[in-house]
Amino acid sequence: MTTLADDKLPCTFVIFGATGNLASNKLLPALYHLEAAARLSESLNIVAFSRRDWDTARWREHVREVLAERIKGRTDDAVFERFLARFVYLQGDLNDVASYEGLATRLQHGGVACSSTVFYLAIKPAEFAAVVQNLETVGLNKPRGLNRIVVEKPFGEDIESAHMLNQLLHQHFDEEQIFRIDHFLGKETVQNLLVFRFANTLIEPLWNRNFIDHVQITVAESIGIEKRAEYYDRAGALRDMLQNHLMQLLTVVAMEPPPALEADALRDEKVKVLRSIRPVAKRAVHAHAIRGQYARGSIDGEPVVGYAQEAGVERNSVTETYVAAKFYIDNWRWRGVPFYLRTGKRLAKQTSMIAIRFRHPPQQLFRETPLESVAPNWVLLSIQPEESMRMEIHVKQPGLDMDTRVMQMNASFVKTDEQTLDAYETLLLDVIEGDRTLFIRFDEVEWAWRVVDPILKHWAVEREYIPTYPAGSWGPADANRLFDSDDQAWRNEL
Ligand code: BG6
Fold first, then answer.
1. Nearest protein CA to atom 9 of ligand 1, as residue
2. How confident is the model at residue 372 (pLDDT cuts 50, 70, 90)?
3. Which of 12, 58, 119, 368 has the fewest C-beta atoms lying within 10 Å of its C-beta?
4. From CA 489, how far away is CA 482, in angstroms rounded?
């Protein structure tokens, strides 16, 4: 992994959309954690750019409120004050060049000799183009190669728009300046998956079609769309989660060992997986993908409204808040092994996991015992809320009969005295240090769009009706029809 020398580290971090959801939920807590871990260089300033008519004092008040709500455990006063002191608030309009002139002046007169700046687009995709063009107009895309721009997913809303966005970025920035972020790659378990697969000789020989029956990737959320109707109603679960986060998880599960743990080596392997996914034929979309929208229901015993009743959502919206899909990877390792992916909002609980089900043993030796058939082995990698790995294996039950029972071997990745961090800490540090290993290359984005494109196109014309599921359930029952065989079923619990 390549990182920059200290004197090349950026000294300003600009957050566009500083008062938005992403900044509050993810960026501010992550930056604070980096401060607490003494990983931010002393000279780093953070410019919070937003439309609200605030000044720096009001902004700092906001940071206090946000962190009070989101940082668990005690915050250290000295660390907190040091963190707040880094911020400057800049009121501006993303579409107005004058605001960028103000930003440029601020950056020039920041006080310290500044080698470079990070621009973080924590804004709606529809606003990316204006920001990129305006940065160029005032010359903030330079120095080329040093100033960086961080682009959040979804990268475009289909293949065509992704290409246009990429072209636009490349007109004004070099590829080394562009950091396409998918924060799932920063999650501890996802990185651990690389270690689990490639540092354990025990695992790798089993990781293929000869032993694995199918793979399930679930990212279930109990939250609704919060205050993001404007964005979400255009995006839907397929664009918001499956095309990026779940596809990335799939590539990490399925990829071949890279020649080195370097940005391009890793990304080459991920692209090979995406290229090997069998395209879903137009007429087969129904058999490969299920969508649904949450109706009213209850979460943790509290009643919640349906998606169509959420503020800002059209009452007759057919945007999906749930998607389940089946893909095949047509290569030597995975041919014939279905990968089932699903994600949804307002599901029964907040849980993300990768569940690998192994094949039945070739000989049913224990058929004559009370146990009719032996349940298959599972490897379960839990991403959140807990970060752990479980293996389900059979052992003999003590006693006179030849009964078996399933035992779970649990390995928590985190020791009790270790603090777990969100994915953004790692990724923000990587942006600052210039390490692109965990960021997405455009061909990954492009191939991932190709995979989901037939589904998007099909749903785009079926606009009259969308099945619903009660909030607090596991999604539409219809999702069970994706399975290739009767002995496959969604795994909801670890
Ligand atoms: C974001 C999606 O990328 O990921 C959200 O836009 C989703 O809709 C979020 O809630 C989930 O990420 P995490 O890290 O909070 O599980």
1. 241
2. low
3. 368
4. 9
Contact assessment for residue 252 and residue 360, using Cβ atoms and an 8 Å cutoff? no
182 lines ligand 1 (CB under 6 A): no
By annotation, the residues acting in catalysis are 245
pLDDT category at 315 given cuts 50, 70, 90 is very high
Check residues 188 and 246 and name the one with the higher pLDDT.
Answer: 246
Q: Scan for tokens 């924590």, then name that residue.
A: 122
Residues 201-225 as b/e (b if ≥16 CB within 10 A, e otherwise) read eeeeeebeeeebbbbbbbbbbbebb
At which residue do the structure tokens 């989101």 appear? 70
CATH of 185-421+438-482, one of 3.40.50.150, 3.30.930.10, 3.30.360.10, 3.40.50.880: 3.30.360.10
Say if CB 134 and CB 101 are below 8 A apart: no
Q: Which residues pair with 119 in a beta bridge?
A: 14, 149
Any idea which fold 3-152 has? Rossmann fold (3.40.50)
Ligand 1 center–CA 223 separation, angstroms: 10
Q: Measured from the CA of 423, which atom of ligand 1 is nearest? A: 14
Residue 376 clears pLDDT 60, i.e. is over it: yes
Q: Where are the domains of the chain?
A: 3-152, 185-421+438-482
Regarding predicted confidence, which is higher, 449 or 124? 449
pLDDT of residue 2: 46
Average pLDDT, whole number, for the chain? 91
